């Protein structure tokens, strides 16, 4: 059963922006563009023209890569934009809420607050390696739980959500909540993407990004995959021409076979470096815990997180400290071999001080 009925009524009624038609081999006098073609950059498409309202070729290429059909995917400005679009599509201000385990990626809460939607958080437990407790999530649901965000592997804990647990969540909330699985770090772990479940679960939405494994954070490109009618509604609220011509062409190039091989090798390298770094770091006396991780980062618990952060920063190495429930924890992104060597030598000095 479709979850379109969960969508805000005014969004259900919204019609997509009626953009000026774009046809090849025509004289375009319908979009108030300049006839002046810029010579800046080396782009395949002229920059005096608007980009496609939605980049069709890119959409097809990403659909092929991620394993769904073209009408099941919307290309977004990073997956961050998809988070915003989903919350605005489903959550009525002052009435509905999102549900998410915590700690989690802070943008779910951020965009919910901007939309005036509530945020219900279910604590995960450090002693259980921050495993997502699906029963606790289900117990926290009510009629206003429009969107459930689960990130797998989770940022900042690195924990994956086992497929069986996700299936239970999808089944139990079938026509009552959109379940968003954020796969920003999926390439670094053992779990397969759940995009293949889209045809069985109309309440499933999957987020993917080019910012991590593919190495294109600077380009700002991601995607949301889901049931065709939900994708059409998300598309209706996304800004027209959201993806700029230089971005579209850069991502088309990034998806060439040669580039994909380079990216896959970089992922292998990060995974190998992750185990090297984790085992080296677990040997320091000031580190009391290194949590397992299926992402390109891992979380550690240390005696004095602020002192360690300051020491590393003084030696020009930046790590991430979140405070709050993670006040004694630090998240370390796995860098290049030489970056990681530098981190270890900085930490050797910290150990001696
Ligand atoms: C879990 C998770 N989801 C989504 C994003 C957003 O990524 P982007 O907007 O670059 O695609 C991030 C970025 O750090 C993230 O950690």
Care to describe what's here?
The chain has a seven-stranded mixed sheet, with helices on both faces. The chain has eleven helices and ten strands. It is 35% helix and 15% strand. α3 crosses α4 and α9 packs parallel to α11. Bound molecules: pyridoxal-5'-phosphate. Pyridoxal-5'-phosphate binds next to α3.
Integer average pLDDT = 96
CATH superfamily of the largest domain: Type I PLP-dependent aspartate aminotransferase-like (Major domain)
CA radius of gyration is 22 Å
Strand ordering within the main sheet = 1-7-6-5-4-2-3
- Quickly name the level 1 CATH class of the largest domain: Alpha Beta
Based on Cα principal axes, name the global outline.
globular
CATH architecture of the largest domain: 3-Layer(aba) Sandwich
Structural class: alpha/beta
Could you give the order of the helices and strands?
A: HHEHEHEHEHEEEHHHEEHEH
- Number of helices, counting only DSSP H or I runs of 4 residues or more: 11
Q: What order do the helices and strands come in, and which of them pair?
A:
Layout: H1 9-12, H2 56-66, E1 73-76, H3 78-90, E2 97-102, H4 107-115, E3 118-123, H5 134-139, E4 145-151, H6 163-172, E5 178-182, E6 204-209, E7 222-226, H7 228-237, H8 245-254, H9 257-282, E8 287-290, E9 297-302, H10 305-314, E10 329-333, H11 337-352
């Amino acid at each position: 059963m479709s979850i379109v009925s969960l969508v805000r009524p005014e969004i259900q009624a919204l019609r997509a922006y009626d953009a000026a038609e774009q046809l090849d081999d025509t004289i375009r006098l319908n979009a108030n563009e300049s006839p002046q073609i810029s010579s800046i950059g080396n782009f395949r498409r002229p920059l005096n023209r608007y980009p496609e309202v939605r980049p069709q070729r890119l959409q097809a290429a990403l659909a092929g890569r991620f394993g769904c059909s073209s009408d099941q995917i919307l290309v977004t400005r990073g997956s961050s934009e998809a988070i915003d679009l989903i919350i605005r599509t489903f959550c009525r201000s002052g009435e509905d809420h999102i549900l998410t385990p915590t700690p989690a990626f802070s943008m779910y809460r951020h965009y919910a607050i901007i939309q005036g939607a509530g945020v219900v958080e279910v604590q995960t437990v450090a002693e259980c390696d921050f495993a997502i407790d699906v029963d606790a999530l289900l117990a926290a649901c009510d009629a206003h739980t429009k969107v459930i965000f689960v990130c797998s592997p989770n940022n900042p804990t690195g924990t994956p959500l086992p497929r069986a647990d996700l299936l239970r969540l999808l089944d139990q909330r079938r026509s009552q909540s959109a379940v968003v699985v954020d796969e920003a770090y999926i390439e670094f772990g053992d779990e397969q993407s759940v995009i293949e479940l889209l045809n069985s679960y109309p309440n499933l939405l999957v987020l993917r990004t080019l910012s991590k494994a593919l190495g294109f954070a600077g380009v700002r490109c991601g995607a949301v995959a889901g049931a065709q009618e939900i994708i059409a509604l998300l598309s209706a609220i996304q800004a027209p021409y959201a993806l700029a011509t230089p971005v579209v062409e850069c991502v088309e190039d990034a998806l060439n076979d040669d580039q994909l091989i380079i990216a896959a090798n970089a992922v292998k390298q990060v995974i190998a470096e992750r185990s090297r770094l984790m085992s080296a770091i677990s040997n320091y006396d000031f580190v009391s815990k290194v949590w397992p991780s299926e992402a390109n980062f891992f979380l550690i618990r240390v005696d004095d997180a602020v002192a360690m952060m300051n020491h590393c920063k003084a030696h020009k190495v930046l790590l991430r400290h979140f405070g709050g429930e993670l006040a004694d924890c630090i998240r370390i992104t796995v860098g290049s071999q030489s970056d990681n060597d530098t981190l270890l030598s900085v930490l050797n000095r910290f150990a001696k001080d």
